[in-house]
Every structure is written in structure tokens, then in C-alpha cells.
Amino acid sequence: MYISQTAAQSIVEEIGREIHEHINFMDQEGYIVASTDRARLGTLHTGARRIIEEKLPELYITEEMENSTTKKGINLPITIRDEIVGVVGITGDKERVAGYGNIVRRMTEIMVEDSRLKAHQVYDRRVRYRFIEEWIGRSGAFYDRGFVERGGQIGIDIMKPRRGMVIRFVRYSLLSATQEGQRRLEEMEAAVRHYAEREEILYLREPPRQICLVEACNDEKIRKTAESIQRLLQEKYGERVVIGIDSVDGGSIHINQICKEAERAAEAGGLADIIFYKDLYVELFLQDVTAEAQVEYLNRLFPGIGEDELDAYMKLIEVFVEEDGSLTRMSERLYMHKNTIQYKLRKMETLNGRDIRTPVGAAVYYMALQFYRTLNQTTGIGQRSFT
Question: Nearest-CA neighbor of 189 among 237, 136, 253, 254?
Fold first, then answer.
């Protein structure tokens, strides 16, 4: 068939709603593959077969011509690029349906062509996805001639230096757990894909991540691209994403390398929503620490407290780190008096004897903050077991 049965059914239902008549769509052999009268699906329409075999411009089935497979009404060929790809039929008396004939035929041809183009776009996108996936999976920068030519056939110059970005939704685990959340994820992923296609960025969806390969540029330019994607998702969907970016200012043809770096940066998360691989330090090995070890670390540092209290301490640590321990700036950020902040810091110290205002204490709490963020990203708030 020229189009899928699902697409054909969608077409007849849409047209049927407009003209309030039964519509049938027959394939190139004359079988009814879509109909507003579901009882007729799969049956042979002898009138449609006659149109196809004799190349008739139209055929009206009168009451006398009706039989078990054909009902009275007008039937017209659907022609795309001078080829009959099917037949559309409108059931009813001639006086009532004749006026709809050419309008319905043209509407159907337009919708069939649109459906065909969309199907080709989906197919082309899948071909590109498979190629990009294979490309990313190849280590090194040596590409044989055949692989280079395959890329050229689908419009991808693999010898052109590029930058790598990996996008991760902060709430991916929570959203993917429900049907509504999955629908929301699909919408957001489509929004990123449309943005990438518009900006001529190579795109690959690999749940739970999305990979963007940007033409060679400096750090400032790729950061602006990442910020545009963040704004798009924040303003339209209210969702936060973490975007990891490779370390190769100016781009590289080592696609496997830059994607690994971008992925590592995105997984590291941290205090920023946009992270360059070259800015990672302690975060480089955080992913090698098991979730069980991270939970144990937090339990030892914050014994006997609940999640709400732990969340409050983490916010305090986060602001302390971002403001380099300045009580004045922390006070402005948290809308608290400096004495209140000092009280909270001393109270936190009583839990484990570690003072965040010392170099060693700052390192201990910074690690706790990183573990806390990592656990939130992988399991979601409320799914850990602190004691």
C-alpha cells in the first residue's frame, strides 16, 4: 500500500466528519483498507477494482448495481504522480454525494501525499539515527572510505570537526514512570529535535539522553546554543535539563571522544545546569562510587534526620559553596539574617563534628552535596532510605 492502514483510516475519519457521509478507502487491488463503516473493512470493492483495471475517471454505483461487496455511491481514483494509488468512495444517493466527489478526491490526494511525505521523513530520520549511532560508537578518527560515502549520501560530512552536547532531563526517572510523563517527555524530545533540525545540528535520541553534534565552534558559542535549549524547555514545559559539553574548544572529528566527554559531564550534574568536561574535578570519579556507598556517606554525615531537614541542609551547603562562604551574600540569597545562618551552620556541625568553614569540612560537605544530587538524579526525591 502507498500509505499505512492507520494513516488511511485517519484520512477517511477526518473527511467523514467534515461531510457527514460514510467514506471508504480502497487499496491498489480494490480491497477496503479504511472505512467509517468498520463492518466493511477487508472486503473487496468490485467497483474500485474496476476503476483500477479500466483506469476510469469515476464510477457511480446505482441501486441496481449494488451487491454484497459494493454499495451505491460515487467512487473516484486517488492519483499521485500519475499513478493510481487507491480509490476513495462516498456512500449515498447520487444527488447527495455527487457534489462532494472532486472535493473529496482532492482532499484525499493531498492528505495521502502528506502522509507519504511524513512517512518518508520518519524513515529518513531513522536511517540518520542509525548512522549517527554507529558513528558515535566507532573509536578513534579513522573512517574507511565506504563509511565516509555512506555519510555523504544522507547529507552528513563526518570529516567536519564538531562539538558534542548531551542533554539529560533532571526529572527523567519520575516522568518516565507514568503514561502522562512519557507523553510529556516525547513532546520535549520532539521540541529539542525540531530546534536541532532548524539550526542544522545533528541530533540523536538515545533515552534517557539526547545527543547534539554541533559544527565546530568555541566554548562561548556552544554555551549559547545550550542556553537556548534550556530556555526552550523551561519556558514551554517548566522542566530543567542538565547539558554536558565536551572539552575540545574548536571541535574535533573524534566523535566517540567528544560524546563520551559530554556524557560524563551531563552525568556529573553538579551545581551548574551547563557543564563543560574540562571543568570537572571531583565529579570525574563520583559516578564510580556506588549508590549504596553514597547513601552510607550521607547517613554518617547526617545521622538520624529526615529528608525535609536533609533537603534544607543541602540548600544551605549549596549556597555556601556558590557564595564562597560569604555570610553577607548568603543572607541575601536565603533571605536570612547572618546570625541565623551561623546558627544553622553550627547546628549542622553538631551532627558530625565537621565545620564547613574549614578547608577539610568544606570538602566533606561538598562531597555530600554531590552525592545528594547524584542520588536525586538517578532515583528521585523520596525514594532513598536515610536513617
Answer: 237
Residue matched to cell numbers 454499495: 71
Residues of the chain with pLDDT under 50: 381-387
Alpha helix stretches (DSSP H) within 238-306 = 255-268, 283-286, 291-301
Contacts of 354 (CB under 8 A, 6+ apart): 301, 360, 361, 364, 365
Question: CA 4 → CA 36, 80, 85, 119, 299, distances in Å?
Answer: 16, 15, 12, 9, 56
Q: Which helix (H) or strand (E) holds 277?
A: none
d(C-alpha 309, C-alpha 18), whole Å: 59
Whether 73 and 89 have beta carbons less than 8 Å apart is answered as yes
Q: Which three cell numbers stand for residue 251?
A: 571541535
First to last CA, the chain: 62
What CA–CA distance (Å, rounded) separates 274 from 341? 29
What totals of helices (H) and strands (E) does the chain contain, helices first? 15, 10
Query: If residue 57 lies in a helix (H) or strand (E), which one and from where to where?
Result: none
Q: Report strand pairing: 83-91 vs 23-26.
A: antiparallel
Give the separation between CA 274 and CA 266, rounded to whole angstroms: 8
Q: Give the phi and the psi of residue 24 in degrees, each rounded to 5.
A: -120, 145
CATH (residue range 5-112):
3.30.450.20
Residues 177-216 have pLDDT tens digits of: 899 999 999 999 999 999 999 999 999 998 889 999 999 9
pTM: 0.58
Give the span between the Cα atoms of 38 and 70, in whole angstroms.
Answer: 14
> Does domain 160-286 match CATH 3.30.70.270?
yes
- All three cell numbers of 181: 510523563
Q: Which of 367, 278, 357 is nearest to 323 (CA)?
A: 357
Parse the chain into domains and list their residue ranges: 5-112, 160-286, 291-379
HSE value, Cβ hemisphere, 13 Å, CA-based, for 113: 13
Handedness of CA 261, 264, 266, 268 (dihedral sign): negative
CATH 1.10.10.2840 fits 291-379, yes or no: yes
Q: What is the DSSP string of 297-341?
A: HHHHHSTT--HHHHHHHHHHHHHHHHTTT-HHHHHHHHT--HHHH
